Amino acid sequence: MHLADALISTPVALVGGAISAALLGVAGVKVKKKDNSGLIPLMGVMGAFIFAAQMVNFAIPGTGSSGHIVGGILLAAILGPWAAFLTLTSVLIIQCLIFADGGLLALGCNILNMAVMTTLVAYPLVFKPLEGTKLSFPRLIAASVAASVVGLELGAFAVSTETVISGVTALPYKTFLTLMLSIHLAIGICEGVATAAILSFIAKNRPEIIYKKNHTRSIRRLKSIIIGFAIATVIIGGGIAFLASSNPDGLEWSIQQITGSTELSESVSSLASGCGEVQGNTAILPDYENSLSGIIGSIMVLVFVWALTALFIKPKKSSQ
Amino acid sequence: MSHHYIQFSNVCYAYPNGVEALHDVSFRISHGEKVALLGPNGAGKSTLILHTNGLLLPTSGEVNVGDIPVEKKTLPLIRQSVGLVFQNSDDQLFMPTVEEDVAFGPLNMKLPEREVEHRIDMALKAVGCQDLRKRAPSQLSGGQRRRVSIATVLSMEPSVLVLDEPSSNLDWKSREDLIRIISSFTHTCLIASHDVDLVKRVCQRSIVLKDGRIIADRPTDEIFTDQDLMRELGLIS
Amino acid sequence: MEFRDQAVPPGINSCALLITTICYLIVMLSVSPTGISMLILFSIFPIITAPICGESYLKIMLRSLWVLPFILFIGIFNPIFDKEAFLKIGELDISRGWVTFASVIIRGLLGMQAILILISNDGFLGLCNSLRRLKVPDLLITQLQFVFRYLLVMMEELQNMRRARDARSYGRDTYPLKVWGNMMGQLFIRTVDRSQRIHAAMISRGFSGTIPTYNNYSFGWSYKNTLYVCSWIAVFLILRLINIPYYISLVTASHIL
Questions:
Q1: Which residues on A lie below 8 Å from C54 (Cβ)?
Q2: Per-residue pLDDT at A34
Q3: Looking at beta carbons, which residues of chain A come within 8 Å of C113?
Q4: What Cα–Cα distance (Å) separates residue B138 from each residue in A87, A262, B144?
Q5: Given a cut of 60, is residue A275 above it in pLDDT?
Q6: Weakest-pLDDT range from A20-24, A273-277, B205-209
Q7: Three-point CA angle B23, B29, B33, nearest 5°
Q8: Nearest in space to C191 (alpha carbons), one of A123, A53, A93
Q9: What percent of chain A is modeled with pLDDT above 70?
Q10: Residue A56's closest CA among B90, C169, C165, B91?
Q11: Rounded mean pLDDT of A290-319?
């Protein structure tokens, strides 16, 4: 589900980044900066745990395939939504920078799709109410599966929407959405069952890890979270709608004609006329033959630059 | 009048689940003494160690470090004067680089920048790891990690050092280095260990713990020549 | 794992490179999906920056191919759904779908190369320090450093558990769900225990809720860094706003083709 930079356009990436940054700010306040209850090291090693858990696949019953866990609901069940959000975000950042999963500019969107949708939406709205206040395995399993499905489906919805608004894929929105939603329904069920498997093991062997929290208080807090999310949803929805309307042909960038302006001034004004338009075509290819020669020429320029740098800048080997 | 001693007086400790881990433990380690803490697994060594700097507080009885009783309100002071090194270096070294780890204690003490620098140099020099300063813990060998772990508490300039299994899982060379380093310390030391050789070479005195009670507290030589006691500890068969 | 020896200074001030890289991605990803020539020209940034940061461009280029499977999956739909003629090579008509497919690939490769260079310049930890300079909240930085610190430790612990289990059954990569759940549950509990031991180690060294930052990094932001960032931004804007491929195509068309 990690979006690569290739699949996203600048405005979409920036909106995703802004929303995620704002929520991270809130998380920073919610997870108290001065905390001496051991939450800081717990969040740290839990992030590392998610990586380790993703290294081992489980067999998906009834099929020949196997899957691994994403971990949003699991983290939220242990750490609470905001700490889980921070933890999952750190996992996504490390996946992006070290394991090359997902793009750097797409990071904001990836945080939104994977961390926000599971820990801040699916957990408080689905898992929490279903889980109940007392340990019960059927409820735990139901809550895990339902929350994982909801979280991943929301994520899949967001991924398809962001990609299509970005106008990089020619896939019709409906086709793409159907495809993504059905794939992630399956993935969500597996994720849910796997989450339930881990949670039941913990509940059996070390119940205090999950059930030490004061539930009456967390339910009261739930209300404020729901309100927070209603607001967030409006903002997110509004942002997307704004993008879609300011760039109405974003969904079908094919409308853009290749014979667009060749003038610099027009390009500049198009850049200034709103982020939606930045997308707009400034690649001006006068005719077919010429554009081919343009590509060839560009490649030649590159080879030349490469040769020059190879000649003049020697890579100084870092010792590691 | 010296601040460099540890005194346990009739310390009992029971975990919240009711298991009694320490029972009427009393001893005194005086200034500059190096004392070994022996005993089979589950004898209560770790529990005892956690009492030395107030990570656990006794259910009844009293722990004193120097003239200061170990209580809630003296904890910051106690933790500066008792340096506790845990068995697993991966738990002890949690910061990204060696220097940040060694600086962690002094920075928590709110020392001025220059003093922190001085402490880092001093602590790393004491364990012979000056050139590892910028490394990440995962780039260190097991022996180096153990030595840096000790440096992380030395930088706080404690008067008492408490080491939990300092020589476990080390190869021969690293272990020799470590023994040499520990021997060079002038600190009051309490060392929990199964390593007979280390105990014989470093500690003049040994305290033997079994089932939460002290069953022997004598010079190390005597302890290791007491066949019955050795058998009880499972050190010989 | 990207460990960079902290004793070696980075090739480029890591804050400056981070800012430049983000600007690069912002401008590069705003190029229209049909603007392949323009996108190709954008690779001068990784080509020039890679050797300065201590890696050969060829190596970065090859490593960036890793991203292909992810983008091919979605990109391949473009030629299927968008068959409108766009480009003619000799007798061959190339549909816009194939052109945008190519552009998705180039975008993906360039984006990945930018990340790889950023990391090879000052390593992950160096990057964390520059994020701290750029006022990213300490809590997140601490969290990143912690995860990074314990990644290998956890992997090792997992390997040990797997070895113990596999020795009793037989080597395999995929486990039945029940076995998997028990294994992960166990690993999870060990993780919680580890966090408690770490916390104890932190407390005994005077931790009281805030991780102190040790600043020994010669950050030295000089006018050179400002100049560096500004000149690259200028280059990106020129590449983006002036239709260089058009002029190049005029030259190549008249002299070569």
A1: 315-318
A2: 58
A3: none
A4: 21, 56, 10
A5: no
A6: A273-277
A7: 145
A8: A53
A9: 66
A10: C165
A11: 66
Indicate the pLDDT class of residue C235, thresholds 50, 70 and 90. very high
> Hey, which residues 182-211 in chain A have their CB within 8 Å of chain C?
193-194, 196-198, 200-202, 205-206, 209
pLDDT the model gives residue A273: 38
Domains and CATH numbers, chain B: 6-92+159-233 (3.40.50.300)
Asked if C200 lies within 8 A of B152 by C-beta distance, the reply is: no
Mean pLDDT of all residues in chain B? Answer: 90
Q: Is 90 exceeded by the pLDDT of residue C195?
A: yes
* Edge-to-edge order in the sheet of strand C174-175: A66-67, A57-59, C174-175
What single letter denotes the amino acid at residue B18? G
> What confidence tens digit (pLDDT) does each residue in A73-120 have?
999 988 889 999 999 999 999 988 888 788 899 999 999 999 999 999
* Nearby residues of B1 by Cβ (< 8 Å), 6 or more positions away: none
Judge whether residue A294 has pLDDT over 70.
no
Residues of B (64-123) whose Cβ lies below 8 Å from C: 76, 79-80, 82-84, 86, 88, 90-92, 94-97, 99-100, 103-105, 107-109, 116-117
**Distance of CA B86 to CAs A4, A274, B89, C29, Å?**
43, 58, 7, 50
Residue A190 burial (CB count, 10 A)? 25
- Mean pLDDT taken over chain C: 83
Closest C-alpha to A166, from A1, A2, A8, A3? A8
Residue from C129, C144, C192, C204 to probe the interface with B (highest B Cβ count within 10 Å): C204
Q: Do C37 and A294 make contact, defined as CB atoms within 8 angstroms?
A: yes
Q: Which amino acid is at B233?
A: L
| Whether C4 and A56 lie within 8 Å, measured CB to CB | no
How far is residue B172's CA from residue B112's CA, in Å, rounded to a whole number? Answer: 39
Q: By three-state DSSP, how is residue B10 classified?
A: strand
The better pLDDT of the pair A124, C256 is held by A124
**Nearest-CB residue to B137 (from C149, C198, C203):** C149
Reported as type and span, the H/E element at residue A122 is none
Q: What is the 3-state secondary structure (H, E, C) of C157-210?
A: HHHHHHHHHHHHCCCCCEECHHHHHHHHHHHHHHHHHHHHHHHHHHHHCCCCCC
> C169 to chain A, minimum CA–CA distance in Å?
16
Measured in angstroms, the CA of C162 and the nearest CA of chain B are apart by 20
Of A66, A168, A281, the CB nearest to C174: A66
| pLDDT band, very low/low/confident/very high, at C257 (cuts 50, 70, 90) | low
Q: Which of A134-143, C106-115, C122-131 has the highest mean pLDDT?
A: C106-115
Query: What ipTM describes this predicted complex?
Result: 0.91
Q: Do A44 and C143 touch (CB under 8 A)?
A: yes
> Which residue has better confidence, A12 or C70?
A12
- Mean per-residue pLDDT, C98-123: 89
Using the Cβ of A96 and the Cβ atoms of chain C, whether some distance falls under 8 Å is answered with yes
| pLDDT single digits (tens) B13-72 | 998 888 889 999 999 999 889 999 998 888 889 899 999 989 999 999 999 998 889 998
How sure is the predictor about A279, in pLDDT bands with cuts at 50, 70 and 90?
Answer: very low
- Pair of tokens at residue C236: 């990106």
Residues 18 through 77 of chain A touching chain C, CB cutoff 8 Å? 24-25, 28, 31, 33-36, 38, 40-49, 51-53, 55-61, 66, 69
Calculate how close chain B gets to C18, using CA atoms only, in Å. Answer: 20
Chain B residue with minimal CA distance to C129?
A: B96
Exposure of A119 in the CB half-sphere (CA atoms within 13 A):
28
Burial code (b: 16+ CB inside 10 Å, e: under 16) for C195-218 equals bebbbbbbbbbbbeebbbebeeee
Nearest to A303 by CA among C41, C254, C233: C41
Residues near A30 by Cβ (< 8 Å), separated by ≥ 6?
A: A82
